[in-house]
Structure to design on (1039 residues):
């Protein structure tokens, strides 16, 4: 048994754990990060699964990663380079297609094929959403306001938020209410008439969530698309050069540069408690490591029921924790292909294909998306799923051998709880992969012959391999009752836990999932503020 | 040409409440009802000689207590309970009394754990009920009037930290998740879920339906003896006693305005009536998009009103029966109100159909048998069953034809017959009313029995921020029907709150 003393131990070397570690180390704390896998990054990893092909295995794009973190940690110096996506392409089975570009005039011409009215309204919609997103950023970059608090500072903050909201004026304030309560489809119906436009827009409202595009409450996620920032440019999505793992590596490098120690293949089996306080961790190999605080980047269920143990928690907390919903709804299919895919509705032009330099949505209609959801509701994966395709090798040739490509397919819906039971997913995995490839091949007829390698990740795989409970990519659903002061459990939304000296810093805390880094940063700030370390 | 202080459009329960309240303060009030009878959605009709149906709004237990006192009504627990039948071999069904003690006892017959949890559930409802009725029985809070936000905020915080956070957590949830947190029994969860979905276009997995359930639970008290018909008679009598003039078969076709202010109405026969104030208890879309002359509303509000969701999804099958409706699982019960539900997933499947413009093959049925309490609605020994059928969308793919409606009636009868096998043999006559029929008969846009969809974005801010507090941008024109806060059902609250607003502002 070895014992050494740290100021903070971070359990889990995902991007949030690393961000938290980097901030604590920069503040002069002695920090140790413990990662179970051989590679850092959690769900933001790059792995060479097939010779020469570097896959962003799970998360594959970045938009909400906080610019403040990039500046504070000088991530550019540590190798972070972002490449903005250049288009949003929606192929249709009938040979038509829609592609939206950063250039509004060009987008307008594309949309006008389907509706001149929608083409006119599209920029206005973007402006309104941009204003709303500006407001929402305030919530992302700060701890969640607590409406039950009697702390005068907290009350002042609530008042300030209220004032800010009022300053938007009645129209935008109403829009804000609608965003929080409406379904993505109903919300878009207020503006647009063409389904070809509405379907791919609405689907961003359900990513990672077990809801359909017609489910109330899905509209607000639309905002995410107007909240992204890359290099200070508002509202854009991007790739990380070299794959999403490079972002994790850059953060790890920054943390190490500030003195943090990072160990991989060091799985934590439990959190060491004494008199109800966390005093360190026990590794799988039996090693005990002590620290002033333990910070878990794992999701709430794994943290508390896995590492702390139900016996060490009070019943009311366990009950509330058990109500926190995970139920992952998405899977991932990663393909290595020997040539650039070609869509029948918009053929490539001598190897040039501008419409493939961005995000490709297989979302040909609202009923299509809703049917996909209905199949999942009753415990099956969608036969014709929504697929978000990105071909990172088009923008970043470094991730694949020359002339060859990676096709990254984010797939919805693949419910963790299939009717046979989640543990039957291994038997259904290839059928799921086939459904995805078959669907994509309807749009890219030659695709199947070009596949060199295929990786299929079901929600069960995401749980087993990446430690995401029930395969939920956000460490718990981003539904209204699990956001802000209720994430993960009301009363424990400020990174603290009922176990003294144990903190949370993962996506299961405010402001939630996605490659944002905000939970890690806000947790570090909260820990430093208490002088616990 | 005649003149009065206030014209109330529509002689439904809300219109009558508004009229009586205004007349009580000395206003001269004229109620104009399109139909030959008063009562709007609360009344049925003689659909077969000697047999009178229940109206689409049949549940009197939500009628506001503040209004009951004035009306001198007999409050009794009617219906005493809701019965959810099971297939005879599967179990005895669930007779859910409103009284928590009796309900828990009945639930305990099947599941002891759920009996305790039901007591907890009702205790929570009771604890937060005051806060909820505080929201529902007052004009809606709005950021334009900070004081209107302060009251609910203070009452919310008075619940204490735990209940306060719980209300905030539960409201945006779906009813399936919330009920499953409490109960093991699907039968119980499904039964409780119905009021959250009835008349809406949402299924048990739709987020926000828990708010509908909270609303319904908070409003539910005891029923009124004699049912909706008695309530309407009492309201009309009360209004007339206070001097309200009521004209039936008087259809308003136009709201007349001058310089942005309402000056009166025009009737279908060309007659004009002047009044400086018009309170419209008809639905807000009809009021603002059809009764107002084009271009009266600012284009922005006009556009938003066209987008208010008010497309119904309920059909009604009325049956004239030669024998009482008896369920095989408990044949001794005389059931006045039953729910045919299936599992939560079955209910969700029933809802799914509406998304694609189809009629559910296994609809959720709310069966009302008005003759259990009022035998005179049918010949001696005979009965009437009015079956509210969810979900049958107004905007049916291919449109509503006689054949489609007949198929729906067959489906409904076959489904009910699986629980009540003697039913088909006792049917004397039947009638099916589609949402389009409801629109025609009751004048509700989209056949929506709540006038405007009950969804989080259309509650509180109802129907639109510019007319959410009864007054509209057209001076003198007020909304006083179910399309205004706090929404549909036999509550009388929109009518009451609109009247208070009118009196406060004039």
């Amino acid at each position: 048994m070895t014992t050494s003393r740290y100021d903070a131990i971070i359990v889990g070397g995902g991007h949030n754990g690393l961000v938290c570690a980097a901030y604590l180390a920069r503040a002069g704390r002695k920090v140790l990060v413990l990662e179970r896998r051989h590679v850092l990054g959690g769900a933001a990893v790059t792995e060479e699964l097939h010779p020469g092909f570097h896959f962003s295995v799970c998360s594959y794009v970045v938009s909400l990663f906080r610019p403040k973190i990039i500046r504070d940690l000088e991530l550019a110096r540590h190798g972070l380079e972002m490449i903005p996506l250049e288009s949003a392409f929606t192929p249709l089975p009938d040979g038509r297609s829609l592609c939206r570009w950063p250039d509004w005039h060009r987008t307008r011409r594309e949309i006008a094929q389907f509706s001149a009215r929608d083409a006119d309204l599209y920029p206005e919609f973007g402006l309104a959403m941009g204003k709303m997103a500006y407001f929402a950023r305030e919530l992302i970059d700060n701890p969640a306001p607590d409406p039950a608090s009697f702390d005068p500072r907290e009350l002042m903050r609530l008042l300030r938020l209220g004032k800010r909201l009022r300053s938007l004026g009645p129209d935008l304030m109403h829009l804000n209410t609608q965003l929080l309560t409406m379904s993505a489809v109903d919300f878009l119906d207020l503006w647009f008439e063409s389904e070809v436009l509405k379907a791919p827009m609405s689907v961003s409202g359900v990513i990672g969530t077990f809801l359909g595009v017609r489910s109330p409450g899905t509209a607000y996620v639309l905002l995410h698309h107007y909240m992204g920032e890359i290099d200070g440019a508002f509202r854009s999505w991007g790739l990380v050069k070299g794959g999403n793992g490079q972002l994790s590596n850059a953060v790890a490098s920054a943390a190490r540069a500030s003195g943090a120690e990072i160990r991989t293949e060091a799985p934590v089996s439990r959190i060491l408690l004494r008199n109800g306080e966390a005093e360190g961790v026990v590794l799988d190999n039996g090693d005990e490591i002590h620290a002033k605080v333990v910070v878990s980047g794992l999701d709430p269920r794994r943290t508390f029921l896995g590492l702390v143990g139900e016996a060490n928690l009070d019943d009311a907390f366990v009950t509330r924790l058990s109500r926190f919903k995970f139920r992952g709804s998405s899977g991932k299919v990663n393909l290595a292909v020997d040539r650039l895919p070609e869509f029948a509705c918009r053929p490539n032009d001598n190897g040039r294909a501008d419409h493939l330099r961005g995000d490709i949505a297989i979302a040909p209609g609202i009923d299509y998306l809703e049917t996909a959801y209905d199949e999942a509701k009753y415990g099956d994966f969608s036969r014709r799923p929504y697929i978000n395709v990105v071909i990172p090798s088009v923008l970043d040739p470094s991730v694949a051998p020359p002339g060859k490509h990676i096709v990254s397919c984010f797939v919805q819906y693949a419910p963790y709880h299939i009717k046979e039971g989640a543990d039957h997913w291994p038997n259904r995995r290839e059928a799921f992969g086939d459904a995805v490839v078959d669907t994509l091949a309807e749009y890219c007829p030659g695709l199947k012959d070009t596949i060199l390698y295929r990786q299929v990740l079901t929600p069960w795989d995401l749980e087993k391999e990446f430690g995401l409970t029930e395969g939920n990519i956000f460490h718990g659903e981003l539904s209204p009752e699990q956001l802000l002061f209720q994430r993960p459990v009301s009363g424990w939304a400020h990174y603290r836990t009922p176990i003294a000296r144990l903190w949370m810093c993962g996506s299961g805390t405010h402001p939630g999932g996605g490659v944002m880094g905000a939970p890690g940063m806000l947790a570090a700030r909260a820990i430093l503020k208490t002088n616990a370390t | 040409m005649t003149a009065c202080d206030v014209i109330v459009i529509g002689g439904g329960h809300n219109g009558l409440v508004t009229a009586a309240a205004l007349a009580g303060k000395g206003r001269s009030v004229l109620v104009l009802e399109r139909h030959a009878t008063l009562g709007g959605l609360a009344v049925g009709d003689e659909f077969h000689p000697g047999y009178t149906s229940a109206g689409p709004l049949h549940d009197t237990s939500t009628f506001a207590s503040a209004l009951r006192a004035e009306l001198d009504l007999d409050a009794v627990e009617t219906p005493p309970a809701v019965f959810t039948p099971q297939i005879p071999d599967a179990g005895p069904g669930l007779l859910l009394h409103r009284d928590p003690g009796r309900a828990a006892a009945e639930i305990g017959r099947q599941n002891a754990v759920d009996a305790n949890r039901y007591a907890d559930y009702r205790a929570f409802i009771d604890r937060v009920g005051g806060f909820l009725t505080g929201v529902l029985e007052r004009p809606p809070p709005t950021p334009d009037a900070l004081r209107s936000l302060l009251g609910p905020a203070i009452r919310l915080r008075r619940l204490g930290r735990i209940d306060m956070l719980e209300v905030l957590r539960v409201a945006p949830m779906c009813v399936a998740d919330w009920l499953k947190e409490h109960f093991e029994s699907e039968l119980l969860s499904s039964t409780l879920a119905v009021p959250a979905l009835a008349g809406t276009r949402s299924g048990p997995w739709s987020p926000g339906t828990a708010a509908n359930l909270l609303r319904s639970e908070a409003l539910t008290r005891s029923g009124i003896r004699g049912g909706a018909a008695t309530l309407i008679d009492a309201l009309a009598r009360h209004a007339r006693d206070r001097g309200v003039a009521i004209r039936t078969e008087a259809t308003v076709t136009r709201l007349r305005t001058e310089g942005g202010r309402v000056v009166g109405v025009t009737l279908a026969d060309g007659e004009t009536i002047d009044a400086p104030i018009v309170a419209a208890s008809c639905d807000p879309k009809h009021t603002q998009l059809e009764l107002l002359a084009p271009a009266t509303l600012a284009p922005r509000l006009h556009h938003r009103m066209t987008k208010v969701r008010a497309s119904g999804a309920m059909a009604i099958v009325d049956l004239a029966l030669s024998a009482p409706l008896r369920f095989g699982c408990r044949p001794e019960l005389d059931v006045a109100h039953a729910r045919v539900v299936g599992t939560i997933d079955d209910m969700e499947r029933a809802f799914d159909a509406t998304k694609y413009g189809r009629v559910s093959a296994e609809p959720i049925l709310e069966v009302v048998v008005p003759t259990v309490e009022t035998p005179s609605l049918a010949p001696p020994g005979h009965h009437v069953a009015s079956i509210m059928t969810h979900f049958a969308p107004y905007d049916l793919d291919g449109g509503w034809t006689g054949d489609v409606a007949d198929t729906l009636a067959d489906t409904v009868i076959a489904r009910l017959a699986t629980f009540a096998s003697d039913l088909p043999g006792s049917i004397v006559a039947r009638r099916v009313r589609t949402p389009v029929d409801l629109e025609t008969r009751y004048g509700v846009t989209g056949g929506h029995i709540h006038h405007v969809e009950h969804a989080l974005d259309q509650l509180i801010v109802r129907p639109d921020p510019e007319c959410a507090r009864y007054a509209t941008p057209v001076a003198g024109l007020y909304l006083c029907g179910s399309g205004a806060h706090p929404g549909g059902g036999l509550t009388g609250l929109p009518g009451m709150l609109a009247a208070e607003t009118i009196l406060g502002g004039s």
In short: The mean pLDDT of chain B is 95. Chain B touches chain A at residues 143-144, 157, 161, 164-166, 168-170, 172-173, 177, 181, 202, 205-208, 304, 307, 309, 345, 348-349, 352, 355-356, 455-457, 461, 465 (CB under 8 Å). Residues 314-393+397-433 of chain B form one domain.
